[in-house]
Amino acid sequence: MSIASLTEFEKTDDILELFSDYMECGANILIAPTHLANNAEEKKKIIENTLKAADDKVFAAGEFRIPSFNGNFKEYFNAIKDEVSYLDKSGVSMIFLNGAKTLAEAKYALSAAKETTELPLNVGLCFDDSGNLSDGTSPLSALITLQAMGADSIGCVFDTDIDVAMETYSVMCDFTTIPLFVWLDAEFMTPELFSDYIPNFVNYKCAMIGLSEKATLKHYIEMSKVLWQFKPYMPDFEEINAVCSRKEIVFMDFKGNIIGDNKNILEIKIEDENTDVDKLLSIVNSQNSGAICFCVKDPDILDRLLYEYVGRPLVKSDEYGEIAAKEKGALVINFNSLSQEDN
Predict the structure, then answer these.
(1) At 243, which helix (H) or strand (E)?
(2) DSSP letter string, 62-106
(3) Which long-range contacts (CB under 8 A, 24 or more apart) does 306-310 make?
(4) What are phi and psi of 192, to 5 degrees?
(5) 258 and 338 Cβ atoms separated by less than 8 Å
(6) What is the DSSP string of 12-80?
(7) Whole-angstrom Cα distance, residue 239 to residue 178?
(8) DSSP classification of residue 232
(9) What's the mean pLDDT in 76-95?
(10) pLDDT tens sequence across 101-155
């Protein structure tokens, strides 16, 4: 499907005409550009006109631009819930959580949104020229973490170089359990040259493709000519048994055995309810930490660790905390110790 998003307009009424042009060029999803609103009334008008333009012929989506993390988890979390709640009640069919530059921002935004809405949630990440997030998180670690938490699709957005994006998806496509999406930078490419890339992204399991602000309607026309001929490849697995920090990934089989070369999982056992959780989070969220396994009895401590740990943790449980841990994307095992066998 083709994603259309406006980057500027003179009057909110212009949205109807502009989106109509994109629909004629093959757009299937119209994203309400609420980030361009100057006030609450204008934001409301933008969504109304986007819904009117879609007219039940294509999907109308809401977008939340993920802000930089301000260091205060509770404040950050509640601000995201407020905005997602507004979009949830607006009549849109899905929500894009776009612009996360770190895994923490993406994880916190998705956690807050999932507590606020049942609409499909698509998480857009901003990868740098190295192909990683700005905190060093690899595409595969981001994918494993966010899809386990319940993202409905994951993608890279905004001004990602097209060749960097291609490399990113070549890494993620073999391990994704959900469709991928992409917003490409086609500023310095002719529409015809740009369209040559589309089959590769479809083969990398991209089900939705959009363009950044420098694209023209001609780009959308050429993209649509190609897209209609292809059916996206679907993910191969229902789930991936892996845990990760920002950079390190440990794979496991469905019996709880660690497989592959990396067998390094640090087990953290907490029995004291007076544990300094702030200090612990600072250590496990450092850029050098490996994959983590939490063994925690106190439900409040476990909840906080699951919310704020940057990555996908393992949780050892004998039913205690199992449901909450799975809801927050953790991998849960019911064994007294980890088994480290090669397959």
Answers:
(1) strand 242-244
(2) EEEEPPPP-S-HHHHHHHHHHHHHHHHTTT-SEEEEEEE-SHHHH
(3) 306/330, 307/73, 307/77, 307/108, 307/111, 308/73, 308/108, 308/281, 309/281, 309/284, 309/285, 310/102, 310/103, 310/104, 310/107, 310/135, 310/137, 310/245, 310/246, 310/285
(4) -70, -45
(5) yes
(6) TTHHHHHHHHHHHTT--EEE--GGG-SSHHHHHHHHHHHHHHHTTTSEEEEEEEPPPP-S-HHHHHHHH
(7) 9
(8) P
(9) 96
(10) 999 999 999 999 999 999 999 999 999 888 899 999 999 999 999 999 999 999 9
Nearest to 326 by CA among 301, 297, 302: 302
Adjacent-strand bridge partners of 30: 4, 60
pLDDT band at 342 (very low <50, low <70, confident <90, very high): very low
- For residue 4, name the pLDDT band (cuts at 50, 70, 90): confident
Structure tokens at 243: 């845990």
pTM beyond 0.70? yes
Joined together, the tokens standing for residue 184 give 């490409």
Reported residue count of the chain is: 343
> What distance in Å separates the CA atoms of residue 316 and residue 274, rounded to the nearest whole number?
20
Cβ atoms within 10 A of the Cβ of 35, count?
A: 15
C-alpha–C-alpha distance, residues 166 and 74, integer Å: 36
Q: Could you say which DSSP state residue 7 is in? A: S
- Residue 338, pLDDT > 80, answer no
Q: Which stretches of 89-161 are DSSP H helices? A: 103-114, 139-149
Structure tokens at 300: 């409040």
Average pLDDT, the chain: 88
Measured on CA atoms in the order 194, 195, 198, 200, is the torsion positive or negative? Answer: negative
How confident is the model over 235-290, as pLDDT tens digits? 888 888 999 998 899 998 877 788 888 888 989 988 887 888 889 898 888 867 78
- The answer to whether residues 6 and 30 touch, using CB atoms and an 8 Å cutoff, is no
Whether 343 shows a pLDDT value over 60: the answer reads no
Largest CA distance in the chain: 63
Q: Would you list the DSSP string of 175-212?
A: T-SS-EEEEE--TTS-HHHHHHHHHHHHHTTEEEEEE-
